[in-house]
Amino acid sequence: MQQQKLATIEDVAAIAGVSIATVSRAINEPTKVADETRRRVNEAIARTGYTTNAMARSLRMRRSNMILILAPDVGDPNFSNILVGLETEASKRGYGVLIGNTQNDAEREADYLRFISSNQADGMILLTGHLPYGHAQPGQETRLPPMVAVNEPVPNSDIPFVGVDNFEGSRLAAEHLISQGHRRIAFIGHSTSRAVNQLRERGYRAALEAAGIAIDPLLILDGDGTTESGRQATEHMFVRDVLPTAFLCINDATALGVIIALTARRYDLPRQFSVMGFDDISFASFVTPSLTTMKQPRLRIGEAAMDMLLGLLEGNRPDRNSVLLRSELIVRNSVAPPRSSLP
Fold first, then answer.
1. From CA 125, how far away is CA 335, in angstroms rounded?
2. 64-68, 186-190, 195-199, 282-286: lowest mean pLDDT where?
3. Rounded CA separation 51/6 (Å)
């Protein structure tokens, strides 16, 4: 049986209708090749099955062409579409991705840094909100590569950040509730440590202050973003007999907890209470009532973050150290004008 001839770079060049040098640039320096040319080269590579000697190229260029993504929980509904954006942009530029599911565990993060110390990754995307544990521990010191923070900025650092404008999004969410006639609006998600929570609370406060509504500290409750924290906060309000007409929640998971607690008490939503989320994760349109929320452009966030990181790897400093994308109000069925009196 005759052995099938391996495809060569000449084969790829002939099918793509470009020179061998252009094929080489498309593989090794994709940002220096026009999008349409790069697309034709990639299609020709796929048709021929041509493979480059990635290890030899990596040694020659001292690059792995891999990006390490550190995420606290890959099961987070916000993660999947951000990952699609990250991976899509990386692939377009000739890079692959490695995913580190840290579970906020210091040992796991230190272990993942092996990819950096052994030159198996050229840069990092941080969804953790902090620098990796272990990067400066005795015996484990690792020189960190270019990094971009996504979703949650890294406090007290100059690490570039890409995410949604949390302040503006929360302000718009609170304004929507106010426009429906609500004046007693609870905020669930107060935190002294999470930058995202603090920004969203500031947006809530700004909207109330602009509308001339006094801020009631009893209507601001702690929340860690889980469904259980939303349920507990709602029960806490009933125990204290301090009730709002609407709940503005730090995220959709918290809003689900509020809906569960109110439904268990047999309230008719949104006739008796309105509930507002943030993020527009997959289940938001399937709960009862379907959740009015602020939609994050997660795909664009991932693409913008990877574009910024690959620019850093090419020696290009970004024009801005942070890119904030606007969230979009998604109106469904969980918000309505308040009743004239509290239930």
1. 36
2. 64-68
3. 9
Q: How many angstroms separate the CA atoms of 103 and 197, rounded?
A: 19
Q: Contact 216/184 with Cβ under 8 angstroms? A: yes
Q: How far are the Cα atoms of 54, 55, 229, 240, 282 from residue 60, in angstroms, in the given order? A: 10, 9, 52, 67, 44
The C-alpha atoms of residue 262 and residue 268 are separated, in whole angstroms, by: 8
Question: Which is higher by pLDDT, 2 or 292?
Answer: 292
If you search the block for the tokens 């048709």, which residue do you land on?
47
| Domain 65-164+298-325, classified CATH 3.40.309.10, yes or no | no
The distance in angstroms from the start CA to the end CA of the chain is 82
Is this structure's pTM higher than 0.85?
no
The pLDDT > 90 percentage for the chain reads: 56
In CATH, what class is 166-296?
Answer: alpha beta
Structure tokens at 9: 């770079």
Distance, CA of 210 to CA of 265 (rounded, Å): 33
Residue 139's contacts (CB-CB under 8 Å, 6 or more residues apart) are none
E strand or H helix at 142: none
Q: Which residues have a Cβ under 8 Å from the Cβ of 211 and sit 6 or more positions away?
A: 175, 178
Query: Residue 107: what pLDDT?
Result: 84
Place of tokens 């809003």: 255
Closest CA to 256 of 295, 220, 229: 229
Fold match, 65-164+298-325 / 166-296:
yes
Rounded CA gap, 68 and 242, in Å?
47
Range 17-49 burial, b when 16+ CB lie within 10 A, else e: ebeeebbbbbbbebeebeeebbebbbebbeebe
What confidence score (pLDDT) does residue 5 get?
61
Q: Contact, 310 vs 250, CB < 8 A?
A: no
Distance in angstroms (rounded) separating the CA atoms of residues 12 and 256 = 52
What residue ranges do the domains of the chain occupy? 9-52, 65-164+298-325, 166-296
